[in-house]
Specification:
This protein is α+β, with helices and mostly antiparallel strands. The protein has helices at 31-44, 76-89, and strands at residues 17-27, 49-54, 62-72, 96-103. Strand 2 and strand 3 form a beta hairpin.
């Protein structure tokens, strides 16, 4: 089986990769302020995110900010649990965590 991991014959399998998404509710005056606030918290906690996006503000002024994490894992449940556990251990509460895409 070819894994793309080099010529090492002892490697015969690669883990699938998942895009795991976590939604944060962030009170802020603007979309940019909400994005930057979540980015600062994730960077400060050394969370391995690669992208943040924000949806339309809610009536109370909070923005739904979604952070994407690309994770190699045995399965989607383990990937989502790992991201959720990492965020929780860093004190970063989020509204929900889910798997968006599986890359092979």
């Amino acid at each position: 089986m070819t894994t793309g991991l080099g010529d090492d014959p002892s490697i015969d399998m690669a883990l699938p990769t998942f895009a795991v998404l976590a939604r944060f509710r962030e009170p802020a005056g603007t979309r940019e302020e909400a994005l930057r606030a979540v980015e600062r918290r994730l960077v400060g906690a050394e969370a391995p995110f690669d992208q943040v996006t924000a949806a339309v503000a809610e009536e109370n002024g909070a923005w739904n900010v979604t952070a994407r994490f690309v994770v190699a894992s045995l399965d989607s449940s383990t990937a989502a649990d790992g991201v959720h556990g990492t965020l929780r251990a860093a004190g970063l509460g989020c509204e929900e965590v889910w798997v968006g895409t599986r890359y092979t």
